[in-house]
Give the backbone structure.
Amino acid sequence: MDFEKIVAKIEDLKEEYLQFWMEVVNCESPTDYKTGVDMCSNMFINKAKERGWKIDIQKQPVSGDAVCITLNPDAPGKPFCLSAHLDTVHPLGSFGTPAARIEDDKLIGPGVADCKGGAVTAFMAMHALEECGFKDRPVKLILQSDEENSSRTSNKTTIYYMIEQAKGCVAFLNLEGNKRYDNACIARKGIAKYKIEITGKACHASVCTEGISAIREAAMKIVELEKNQDPDGITVSCGIISGGSAENTVPEHCTFTVDTRFADDAQMKEVDALVHKIANTAFVEGTTATATLLSSRISMPRKDTNVALVEALNIYWNEAKLPVCEPVMRFGGSDVAYISAAGIPTADNLGICGGGIHTLGEFAYIESLPIFAARLAVAAAGIQDDELE
């Protein structure tokens, strides 16, 4: 395939897809707002229908529907898979109306980098491939709908859908945003989130020695939990706490959440044992506590096949005069860990360049849109079926 032709076609499509990117970001889609997530995925479905591409939809009762769009569904080669999620963490209206805006060289808005930009670059790459006459293999775009809550609301059925759609593919590129142009994630930590509920004994603050403070117990548990801070291993962060009924009352109840991260399955078991041990230890005599797992996501340990994938793609990217990538580990979790665990060559953070994700300053560099889209198109066109065997 002529890589120069692909890159030129991507450049021709730049303005069209910048506008589409803004439209997608303006369609606000918090994870728990199924209507918004489905409206957002329908924007891609309708655009795919216009081009005559194959569309498959996994209906969901609570989460947004998961979607798979395929270019060249009947082509002979192994499928090449791209994936992004359309749900975001930002409550409706957080960025004002309209939600997306351009400031200098940046596009700002909810999910602009995490991960709507990645979905747009994927569609742009597929459009360019079709315009260039590429028919060697199917190219799939899988749109996830509840990634931000670890697929809790779909009971992970959206993840099982991703795995099913990715079976037999030559490679799987996940399109989370990236702060840089020159790396790709090939390993990730896993995540387990817990809720710890504490019960003490209420009384008036004037006789506080007769009460048993649930908040004091929570504070001591949090200090003990957060002693675990290994950037390359287990980390613990307690992000939300709620307790007490009045300033002059010893609190009977307190609840807090725990975000734990781990590098492999052994550490995942270690984390679970740690949380339950501290929950079951009463630092303030007379308190009781329970620990409940809220959600979890497996880790993505470093694999030679994932490193080999990035190294193979670098050859094609270098030939196309596009930025090459160093394989790196990331501390955040991702659904792509399940794809890697299924034995499929996988790389992540290839969607767009930006930052400030999960904040009101979330942004993406506009100039990164054609660069990342060109890399995806060149990757799909260049890789060989037997390259990673």
Observations:
- The two ends are 22 Å apart (CA to CA).
- Residues 114 and 357 are 6 Å apart (CA to CA).
- The chain has a mean pLDDT of 97.
